[in-house]
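Whiteboard transcription, Tuesday session. T.W. wrote the structure tokens on the left side:
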């Protein structure tokens, strides 16, 4: 039956496995494989020199510091202390070609974090209700990746315009599916623990319901003249 096609989501708890295996965690840990995204190891990300406007550079440096080992743990603990979910949600938005995706990759490399990059096309399906299931599975896979990896990975929704846009008036099953996807994403962002990042070129079309879900927003403007000169050099 197709309902059992995702058996990797059903398993005994770690404590139960420890009892059965006499505390042998080496047997418990197995390779994590993603069906709906791509895992990018920080060691495989090539170093890249990027140039930013001063305002963006300051924000990026803050982001790098926040995701460093010491600061990230402290921030997460502080958020839990104040009754907040320890989810570090980041939106990178602005003009195309200004380095949003490259920024995420270089931050991941610097902080030695794996990227779990989601292919939005894999989420969307022509079958009614399947897109919503796929989106929920993405977050299930991310939770699994967090358990498998030593450091919290970055869940990246790259070029997420198709899923972050303004909700529609329901006139068709397509509109209904789109709104359902957004509702699921909004709920997941409320509950997510770890690091979620999304990039978009169409910030003016961002649904306002997402606004408060992002802890940190980074706006990429067109590069100023001196930045363009540095790039050309």
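and on the right, the sequence the group agreed on:
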């Amino acid at each position: 039956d197709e309902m059992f096609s995702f058996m990797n989501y059903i398993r005994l708890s770690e404590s139960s496995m420890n009892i059965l295996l006499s505390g042998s965690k080496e047997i418990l840990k197995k390779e994590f494989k993603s069906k709906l995204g791509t895992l990018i190891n920080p060691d495989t990300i090539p170093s890249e020199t990027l140039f930013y406007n001063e305002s963006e550079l300051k924000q990026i440096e803050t982001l790098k510091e926040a995701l460093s080992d010491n600061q990230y743990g402290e921030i997460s603990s502080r958020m839990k202390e104040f009754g907040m979910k320890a989810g570090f949600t980041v939106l990178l938005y602005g003009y195309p070609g200004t380095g949003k995706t490259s920024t995420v990759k270089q931050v991941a490399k610097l902080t030695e974090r794996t990227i779990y990059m989601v292919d939005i096309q894999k989420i969307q399906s022509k079958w009614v209700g399947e897109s919503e299931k796929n989106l929920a599975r993405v977050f299930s896979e991310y939770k699994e990746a967090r358990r498998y990896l030593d450091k919290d990975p970055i869940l990246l929704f790259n070029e997420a315009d198709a899923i972050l846009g303004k909700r529609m008036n329901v006139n068709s099953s397509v509109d209904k599916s789109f709104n359902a996807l957004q509702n699921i994403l909004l709920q997941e962002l409320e509950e997510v623990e770890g690091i979620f990042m999304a990039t978009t070129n169409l910030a003016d079309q961002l649904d306002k319901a997402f606004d408060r879900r992002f802890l940190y927003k980074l706006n990429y403007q067109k590069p100023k003249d001196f930045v363009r000169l540095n790039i050309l050099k």
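Someone added at the bottom: The mean pLDDT is 83.
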